[in-house]
């Protein structure tokens, strides 16, 4: 019986040789992996809209363009040096409230309207405007200015929910004809509830 046990033992020399081979192979694999050029990951073909702007992302302001049976919202890119979402949107809104500078695009936002505050929080954009925003124009004018605010506010995140406030109070009705403002507003809800 002692002879059988002795034949099953592995000599220390064999263990050392196997260990050296494992270390050598592992080191070679590590060396090869570290000297290979990086591979490009397989990126899906669909685009994911970021919630925060990427450096150099160009936001848009939205103007109104007449068509045969109404109005279209048309984007105009705005060059902005800021990279923080609040700063980007504040600058875009300053451009929106200043009015169009070229072409046949127009706005129905009264020129006296001021941006009193803007906050981005967890997929929501809160826009606080001066009382001038509510003055003048009929229902088409009111719907147009709501659209301009929604689309400009969602330029960084087209799926964001927008809350429009006037002098710090959530807007419920807009203008003399009383266009009801169903908040929160999204691009989808605007297209469904406020035809231009």
UniProtKB/TrEMBL annotation:
<feature type="domain" description="GerMN">
    <location>
        <begin position="89"/>
        <end position="175"/>
    </location>
</feature>
<feature type="transmembrane region" description="Helical">
    <location>
        <begin position="12"/>
        <end position="33"/>
    </location>
</feature>
<protein>
    <submittedName>
        <fullName>GerMN domain-containing protein</fullName>
    </submittedName>
</protein>
<keyword id="KW-1133">Transmembrane helix</keyword>
<keyword id="KW-0472">Membrane</keyword>
<keyword id="KW-0812">Transmembrane</keyword>
<dbReference type="Pfam" id="PF10646">
    <property type="entry name" value="Germane"/>
</dbReference>
<dbReference type="InterPro" id="IPR019606">
    <property type="entry name" value="GerMN"/>
</dbReference>
């Amino acid at each position: 019986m002692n002879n059988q046990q002795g034949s099953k033992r592995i000599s220390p020399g064999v263990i050392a040789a196997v260990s050296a081979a494992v270390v050598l192979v592992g080191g070679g694999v590590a060396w090869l992996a570290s000297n290979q050029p990086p591979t490009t990951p397989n990126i899906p073909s669909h685009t994911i809209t970021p919630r925060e702007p990427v450096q150099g992302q160009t936001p848009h302001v939205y103007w109104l363009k007449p068509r045969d049976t109404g109005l279209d919202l048309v984007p105009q890119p705005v060059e902005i040096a800021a990279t923080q979402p609040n700063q980007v949107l504040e600058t875009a809104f300053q451009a929106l409230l200043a009015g169009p500078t070229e072409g046949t695009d127009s706005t129905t936002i009264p020129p006296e309207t001021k941006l009193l505050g803007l906050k981005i929080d967890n997929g929501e954009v809160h826009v606080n405007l001066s009382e001038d925003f509510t003055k003048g124009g009929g229902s088409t004018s009111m719907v147009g200015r709501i659209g301009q605010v929604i689309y400009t506010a969602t330029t960084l995140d087209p799926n964001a929910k927008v809350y429009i406030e006037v002098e710090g109070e959530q807007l419920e009705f807009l203008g003399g004809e009383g266009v009801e403002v169903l908040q929160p507003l999204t691009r989808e809800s605007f297209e469904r509830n406020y035809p231009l």
